[in-house]
């Protein structure tokens, strides 16, 4: 008997090794044959993580082989498909994690209750599809699910739901479908007290108000039209038919590289051709668009494509926001320490596995497939709940009272309205304020209202929206101060740890800080009485501004000094050359009259005028750069005086560089006009390239200066939210 058992074990080990080797070599035809012919091969663990052959086929994306393997299981299909690896994942978990809707349907249609089967992390395949942003897989599993998927494995340990994780991953297309399918999730909170609307309020780059585009990009943005995401109707049969056909390509496998190359090539040439848009869509710029395959592909020029993707992202995020605001009702309820909830015992971490069929369909099967109902004592202890159980149905009704620290955490949680104001999402601020006017009274843990948060975080668009609303804000909103006694002017004067403005250089940052302070002062000073001038530390806004901007003034002064020194050196060199040039007359003078020999030549007039312009403007540039170097670099100087001196100096410098080049070409033209004729112009262009590169390298600084001076209201930067 022992010899037979040893022989059987050796055969099983050999079979497992053979299966593993063939799978690693990609010999899937042989793997399928072995899988069909040997029952032991179906349950054999092939890897250190106890993955079966079916797990490996799914993780390798072998849809055709998976279909054949699942179809060969016969009566044991339920038993085999319930097999898990060391992470508690079934083959369906793996397919959902990869987002393969074809394989999800092949597996889930055989054993539908696998959709609510929990792994070691208490996550179902449906939850994994949402976590990784796979919209097609999520909807496929949703339509195949026979029970309520919210009963088991629908939350992370911290309480995040399908909708939370979809928004955290910025899968806005999927989030829109989820909120339409499960509107009740819009009100759910995690352990930190955050609803899905809280999560969305932390994504400023998903909205137009936080997007900074150049002039050309803005024109493209407003010219293109983007369709809104449509809700996928609750018609399981119609949707699931999309995954009835084969996923395999029509061409041989070894032709794949060639096919993808020509697809990419023709996709660029034939803009938007539907027949070429058959590549399965993936996560593009933070949201999923699986329902419209390839609509983000083949948009021709890369720059236009990026703007189209950006506008699609803004559109679908706005749709999700509207749904959440419409569904949410945070201002209809008063804070209570007790709440009635309903739950199914399957939502605890102990009840992992698959949902078993019972009279009332309660519980969740464990790894061996037996049914277990999580003890109420364990649930109450885990979630810090006290109360009693009244079991008259398949669910329990519990009175839960959170511990004091949990209650305090929920009370201190900022509302989505305040988070949106802090992040500069004007669309959300406007939408919430229109539906819930009482939200204007919201305060954060530091006692700051929406206006104070917008000012403190330099959210210029949100501030302007609040100031210029058709329905004016009440005086009390302007006169609000935080727990430290700071009003809006104090917060506008306070400089944070990072640079908030969309402008490079410490000097220009300082200029826009001064502009922002003046904008806030001009807007709200009439609403502030004189006794609001001091905070609890007896500081005025001016004192706070001086104290918090010392380092910025120092850095700005150093940058201006270094820039002026470099530019003044170039201006001095040009002035020297221009003076020598203007004193030299090409061709000499007539001995009889003393007039220039070439005075009747057009090039001579160009030479004289250009050399004079170069001399005058180089000296002008030198004077203004010296004025900067001798400046006292006070705070007020950064508002207007220093930027104007720098812009005038740079303008004069660029003009003198251009003039000296024209003067050189005009004077040298007399030497080459008879020998090279038409070839002289290209030679002059090449000769002037090195100097031209210097001027071009300084142009960005020049345009930044112009923008900083011209704009009355600074522009906020959102780079820190993209890192």
Automatic annotation (TrEMBL):
InterPro entries: Ankyrin_rpt, Ankyrin_rpt-contain_sf, PGG_dom. GO terms for cellular component: membrane. Keywords: Membrane, Transmembrane, Transmembrane helix. The chain crosses the membrane at residues 604-630, 642-669, 681-703. Residues 558-670 form the PGG domain. PANTHER family: CASKIN, REPEAT-CONTAINING PROTEIN, PUTATIVE ISOFORM 1-RELATED. This is PGG domain-containing protein.
């Amino acid at each position: 008997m022992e010899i037979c058992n040893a022989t059987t074990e050796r055969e099983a080990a050999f079979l497992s090794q053979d299966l593993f080797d063939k799978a690693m070599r990609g010999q899937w035809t042989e793997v399928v044959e072995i899988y069909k012919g040997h029952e032991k091969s179906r349950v054999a663990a092939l890897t250190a993580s106890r993955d079966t052959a079916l797990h490996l086929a799914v993780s390798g994306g072998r849809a055709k082989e998976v279909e054949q393997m699942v179809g060969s299981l016969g009566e044991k299909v339920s038993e085999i498909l319930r097999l898990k690896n060391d992470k508690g994942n079934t083959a369906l978990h793996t397919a959902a994690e990869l987002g393969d809707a074809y394989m999800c349907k092949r597996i889930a249609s055989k054993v539908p209750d696998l959709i609510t089967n929990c792994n070691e992390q208490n996550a179902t395949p449906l939850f994994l599809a949402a976590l990784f942003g796979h919209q097609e897989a999520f909807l496929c599993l949703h339509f195949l699910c026979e029970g309520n998927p919210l009963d088991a494995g629908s939350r992370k340990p911290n309480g995040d739901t399908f909708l939370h994780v979809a928004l955290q991953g910025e899968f806005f297309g999927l989030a829109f479908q989820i909120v339409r399918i499960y509107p009740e999730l819009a009100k759910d909170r995690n352990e930190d007290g955050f609803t899905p609307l809280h999560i969305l309020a932390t994504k400023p780059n998903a909205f137009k108000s936080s997007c900074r585009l150049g002039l050309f990009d803005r024109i493209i943005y407003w010219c293109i039209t983007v369709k809104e995401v449509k809700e996928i109707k609750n018609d399981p049969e119609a949707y699931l038919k999309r995954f009835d056909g084969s996923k395999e390509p029509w061409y041989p496998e070894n032709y794949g590289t060639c096919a993808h190359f020509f697809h990419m090539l023709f996709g660029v040439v034939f803009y938007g051709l539907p027949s070429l848009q058959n590549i399965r869509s993936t996560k593009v710029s933070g949201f999923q668009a699986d329902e419209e395959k390839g609509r983000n592909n083949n948009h021709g020029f890369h720059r236009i494509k990026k703007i189209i993707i950006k506008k699609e992202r803004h559109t679908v995020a706005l749709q999700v926001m509207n749904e959440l605001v419409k569904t949410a009702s945070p201002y209809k309820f008063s804070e209570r320490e007790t709440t009635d909830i309903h739950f199914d015992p399957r939502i605890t971490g102990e009840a992992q596995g698959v949902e078993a069929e019972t009279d009332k369909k309660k519980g969740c099967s464990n790894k061996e497939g037996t049914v277990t109902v999580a003890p109420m004592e364990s649930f109450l202890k885990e979630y810090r709940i006290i109360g009693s159980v009244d079991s008259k149905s398949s669910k329990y009704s519990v009175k839960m009272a959170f511990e004091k620290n949990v209650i305090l955490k929920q009370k201190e949680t900022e509302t989505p309205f305040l988070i949106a104001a802090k992040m500069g999402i004007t669309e959300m601020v406007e939408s919430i304020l229109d539906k819930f006017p009482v939200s204007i009274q919201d305060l954060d843990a530091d006692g700051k209202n929406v206006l104070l948060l917008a000012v403190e975080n330099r959210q210029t668009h949100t501030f302007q929206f609040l100031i210029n609303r058709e329905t004016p804000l009440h005086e009390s909103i302007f006169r609000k101060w935080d727990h430290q006694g700071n009003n809006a002017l104090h917060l506008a004067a306070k400089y944070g740890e990072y640079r908030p403005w969309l402008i490079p250089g410490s000097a220009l940052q300082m200029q826009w800080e001064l502009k922002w302070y003046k904008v806030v002062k001009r807007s709200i000073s009439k609403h502030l009485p004189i006794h609001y001038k001091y905070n609890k530390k007896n500081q005025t806004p001016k004192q706070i501004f001086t104290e918090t901007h010392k380092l910025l003034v120092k850095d700005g002064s150093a940058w201006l000094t270094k820039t002026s020194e470099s530019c003044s050196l170039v201006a001095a060199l040009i002035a020297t050359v221009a003076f020598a040039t203007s004193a030299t007359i090409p061709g000499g003078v007539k001995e009889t009259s003393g007039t220039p020999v070439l005075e009747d030549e057009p090039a001579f007039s160009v030479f004289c005028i250009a050399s004079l312009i170069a001399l005058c403007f180089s000296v002008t540039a030198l004077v203004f750069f010296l004025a900067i170097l001798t400046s006292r670099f006070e705070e007020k100087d950064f508002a207007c005086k220093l930027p104007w001196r720098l812009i005038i100096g740079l303008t004069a410098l660029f003009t003198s560089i251009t003039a000296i080049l024209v003067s050189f070409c005009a004077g040298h033209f007399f030497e080459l006009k008879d020998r090279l004729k038409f070839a002289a112009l290209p030679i002059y262009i090449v000769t002037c390239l090195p100097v031209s590169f210097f001027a071009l390298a300084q142009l960005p600084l020049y345009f930044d200066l112009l923008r900083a001076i011209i704009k009355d209201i600074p522009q906020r930067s959102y780079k820190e939210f993209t890192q």
